[in-house]
């Protein structure tokens, strides 16, 4: 099971949440100030592109056309990244092109963290060698940064190395981006099918402060038609896990039913929102909490009391001291729902999805898709996302648009 929400920050965010649950300070001035440089930047880039085109025509031997193709291609648009669903919706990864000429790495897109990293060709550990390693010497657009970087996730995995920058491209959207080149990674990554992570969180939780995220850079460059990334993560149970995608810069209304409910982000770091209630078959469990929508975490992880209430309604479930909450695997045929209310609307997680993985001990028990242990900051991971389409909207007042997934 993967938990990508940063472990050290989970504590920091909790502490902050207690002191000030929602940052309600009005920010009219900063909004205003923000829009001016954006407009100016746009003009600057536009002129820059025109200048490069002129220079390239006059001095073809400089190879400018090739080196700056990422600028030329950056008219506001959208990009599809097809996903591979690993195991029983354990994680979802997609191709990302880095450098010139492009080297393709497989990355796990993660709203629970903000760094983009993958192994460096200089890393010779077993874990690194099991993956595609990026060779910066073979990229004409690579720039050294030199700063060290290190990250630790909630499942105790970690990685570290040095920062650099290069052209990063997803679904045809290209920007110059600071990347972490891992020279060390923990053993958990040795067996993972993806090469690294692609953080979609806010820059406030970048492991090196001041680094801008891919979304920051793509939005500032005017590369996205809309400042959003939309996650469609279907499940093995519902459709074989086929056709998943991240859509940068647009929303695909064929991927959900009804209309999107936009839930305001309460704190920029993770994609954090207020969960107004949890319910079982529409019956309130009387709990409310801050929570994060985290594409990089496999399960839904709530507070202990809620986990207990939910499983108390599923006969045959139990809290195993070594494994956590178990449910009878027969709930696969249940029609009941757990739901989480946000922005005044309840979003379902079918109890059938709680039969996450057979314990394989002949007991007929399954490891539950909802676990406890996250009092104060619930994590709505893939067990939630495979039932609900989510649009991560990074406007000046960010929000998450949510609607039931269309299978
Ligand atoms: C990902 O990249 C690899 C290597 O370039 C390629 O073989 C594969 O078809 C790509 N997969 C998708 C889904 O684009
Ligand atoms: C659970 O949700 C599904 C989808 O919205 C619905 O069809 C079903 O009737 C719900 N089950 C119950 C017991 O309310």
UniProtKB/TrEMBL annotation:
Disulfide bond entries: 123-128, 329-366
Active site residues per record: 110, 294
Reactions that this protein is recorded to catalyse: Hydrolysis of proteins with broad specificity similar to that of pepsin A, preferring hydrophobic residues at P1 and P1'. Clots milk and activates trypsinogen. Does not cleave 4-Gln-|-His-5, but does cleave 10-His-|-Leu-11 and 12-Val-|-Glu-13 in B chain of insulin
Pfam families per record: Asp
Enzyme Commission number: 3.4.23.21
Signal sequence coordinates: 1-19
UniProt keywords, alphabetically: Aspartyl protease, Disulfide bond, Hydrolase, Membrane, Protease, Receptor, Signal, Transmembrane, Zymogen
Bias (Basic and acidic residues) ranges: 22-32
Family: Belongs to the peptidase A1 family.
UniProt protein name: rhizopuspepsin
Protein's organism: Podila minutissima
Gene encoding the protein: PEP1_1
